[in-house]
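User: My advisor, Dr. K., asked me to get a structural model of this assembly before our group meeting. I'm new to this, so sorry if the format is off. These are the inputs:
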Amino acid sequence: MAVAARQRTGAPGFARRALTSDHMAGWLFVLPAVFLVALFSIFPIIWGFLLSLQKASLLSPNRPYIGLDNYQRIASDPLARQAAVNAVYYTALFVPTSIIIALFLAVALNQKIRLIRFYRLAVFIPVAVSTIATGVMFMWVFDAQFGIANWALGGVGLGPFGWFDSVQGAMPSLVIMCIWGWLGFDAIIYLAALQGVPHELVEAAAVDGATRWSTFRHVTLPLLGPATLLLVVWSTISAVQLFDEVFFVTKGGPLNHTAVPVFYIYRLAFTSLYGFSSAGYAAALAYVLFVVILILTLTQFWLGNRVVHYSS
Amino acid sequence: MKVRQSSDVRAAGSTLAATTALAGETGMVEKRRGAWLPFSPWHLLLMPVAIVMLVPLLWVVMTSLETLGQTQHFPPILWPGSFQWNNYPRAWSSVPFSTWFVNTIIVTTAVVASNLLFCSLAAYGFARIRFFGKNVAYFFLLATLMIPIQVVIIPTFLIVKQMHLIDTLGALIVPNLANVFGIFLLTQFFRTLPIELEEAARIDGASRLKVLFRIVLPLSLPALATLAVIQFLWTWNDFLWPLVTIFHENVFTLQLGLMSFQGSHVNDTNLLMAGNVMSMLPMLILFIAAQRYFVRGIATQGLKG
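Assistant: The format is fine. Below is the predicted structure of the whole assembly, which you can bring to the meeting.
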């Protein structure tokens, strides 16, 4: 943002000033968007904190303040702890697996070979499929009785598996489904980063006698640092916010083994499952989740900036 | 990436341009080095991956063309022989799919159109006009990218409830009228455009609005298309927000409808998959037709870090 200003200070002329300096006009241009973002993003984050201090229901305007009771309740709530454990388990499975697969896949998709457009389309296309459609599809693919997954794995002597219905299998099944859905996104980010790697560097390494693997390991991989950092942050954030797939496919089960934080927050605030006055408590949980996301993001960027080398 | 020098902004612009067509799509085929295979060894990795990615989709299509008896068969029937095209009209008429399609199109069109307008206006202000408080306002906007809807869903619900929009299409449109990602994308793009044309037009007495609509926007069609398809994708496939704000079947979007269709047709697998194919098809066609804009939009999300 400082850029635009700096670029222009060099040559102040009539037109330049007329074009660039007008407080009133500037605000008129940005006001509609700024107002909407303030109303639907900044205001809710403040109101959300106030709600977390109240005993609130979404149905009644009567919301008495109860201090930090909601936050104290989190500490002694076994379901909240279970949700946190599930989120950590899902994140630990999803983030490294999806990013490592995407990295090698992007390298392959960056080759100039026949059928490459077909391969790219095959990897990218789940980006266009909604989470619900993906859910309908994978509930059928992973159907314990008639599903194609058990048939294919049975062909190589594995299974049969219970997939979403089994206590041990539900979370890994979710992870597989979500990797199918997100792989295209990750691969696109990596592919864009790979195409920013200068040819001269790779060729120079080859001339110096480096093998393809060591060129990749010591030249390409460090240059992919920023993309990797971005994907780690981005995947972690989306992993701790998992909702659609859990709500639609496993409904938190079996036995709460896939009940993740947003799913629990949704049930507290928008269903009668835990009584109708749990919205304040849900808001407290949501606020804790927000702070966790904030800390994770800042930590990852801080760590990343010490390790990752940005090319200038 | 934290501090953008002016050259970085141009670099960001050229990255945008570079991702328009990912290299390798020009049909160039590299000569093989080792000839131990009649084809590039990369196929050994890519072909299985492509099959794993596509098989679930293809099997859904096959299932949607089977009889109910064929779906309940193990080992699964991969090629049904005779196709039950009739499953599609049956699925379509068993639930109000047409209403859900219309609702989704209304919401998506309204959200995409308003984003194009409001984000263009704001981005022009941020990219081209110097005004008091600009940097602070831009910083706050970008900071809201860190606030996911999931953590503000309860207060946002109460705001929309105050507006008496719950259980109407307005609940799905109003909170999404302007998206920070769109403002960011267009601001970055506008900054890469040469300013001389705009200066000349201003000297000739054109208003800023006229400059924006007659000069800047026509030069920005690729960026606008990118914003449009990404916003279209998000809105079309959104689930959590419609789930909490919409209750009646006649206001459902396609995603809510698909969920309810699944609930009422758990055992009619062939009809369920026909419905699933119909729900996916518009987005898949758009994706294949406008793949480069989707790819660029996603690569730009990468840039915002």
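One thing worth pointing out at the meeting: Confidence is low (pLDDT under 50) at residues 1-12 of chain A.

User: Perfect, thanks a lot.
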